[in-house]
Design a protein that fits this description.
single chain; 417 residues; alpha+beta; Cytochrome p450; six-stranded mixed beta sheet; three-stranded antiparallel beta sheet; 20 helices; 13 strands; binds protoporphyrin IX containing FE
Length: 417
Amino acid sequence: MSELLSLNTSDSGYIRDPYAALTALRDQGPLSRVIVDGLPVWLITGYDEAVEVLSDPRMSNDGRRHAGPEARAVAWTGIATGDVAAHMLRTDPPDHTRLRRLVSKAFTPRRVTALEPRIRTIATDLLAALPTGDEPADLFAAYASPLPILVIGELFGVRTDDLGQFRYWTDVYLGVTEQEGRLQVEASRQLATLINDLFAQRRKELGDRTLDVEGEGTLIDGLIKARDDDDRLDENELITMAFLLLAAGYETTVNLIANGLLILLSEPARLARLIADPRQLTDVIEEFLRFESPVKASTPRYATQDIRVGDTLIPAGDAVLVHFSAANRDPARFADSDAYDPQRNAEYAGRTHLAFGYGLHYCLGASLARLEARVAFEELLAAHPDMGLALSTDQIEWRRSRAMRGVQALPVRLRRA
Ligand code: HEM
């Protein structure tokens, strides 16, 4: 048997530049058998194959039911621990259909649009708190990172007094602060208490009142009251859903804002072009998502039966990872795919990136993430049009993470030297 390729996702070269290794893999074919952090998987690097796998109903997200022994034995798949944070992402129809339908009743476009003024206030408050001297400001720690968690706090209706705790324990829980595992267990307990209290308090206040679940009150209010005929989310499902929204909606959006800012500042002409024509911002954000996808790879899928993709047979039980960063740079789909070019979004009508996934599990919060990024950039560029990176691009440190692509800090001079 030929030796399998290995991908150690905490390797410093891969963390700094995952694209070199991914391009080498894709050059050999759109799917490869690779050992990723100890688990043999089918790694999908081609765009068309990614879409094919993500739309195939024979591919399951439910590892507890469909994973083979190799995936069960590896801790990072979360099968053995029954990870609370990934509930809906780890279910298949009909369970997934039911959960998604109920949460979609409350997580509506109307509720997202209504958040815009609050997001703008959050952004301007954060900008007002930036240091005023000539020292560089870390726009990761002071802007990109707090904004999305404050927005989620707003969406959930977390009391202002509790926001500090909410953010601290979320950071520990998600490993943003790279804490010990023991503290993470404590963090999940603390967050569960905060979220439980929030649900209990809202339930008491809402009582038997009827509510327009699509927009009235907070998202938590909407989730409590969401019904589908006689069906509703039970206590456990509500908590799990809140955890999932936190885990899926926080760091991802942080990375979109911070990675986008790095892209803009790494070539000053990009910033100048956008400031000269702010109408480009929508296309620019789509290109940030394609070019430095905040989520590198999908949650694992498992073949429920032998499945043929192209010339390859994926045996039942095998794990499959769709690599969004690789598919989004597939030259068969995007011409000059390693170049940053916001114009392509007008030219490639219909040929969208996969940064929000594809198919049944397509990101529930995509419109909220786009709104947060738009407002964050509108306010930042208006306040600091002269800003520039305080380090060279190759001095920027990237966060060690299997699934996420994001920087650790972003020192920026707010005024031209
Ligand atoms: C730039 C920011 C974001 C990115 C890049 C992103 C990316 C993704 C991706 C790639 C998936 C699919 C994963 C897979 O199929 O394995 C996903 C699913 C999901 N996302 Fe996002 N996301 C972002 C922001 C958000 C926000 C703000 C929320 C909500 C507050 C959110 C909630 C969810 C949920 C609930 C799912 C699971 C959907 C399902 O299983 O049906 N995401 N996201």
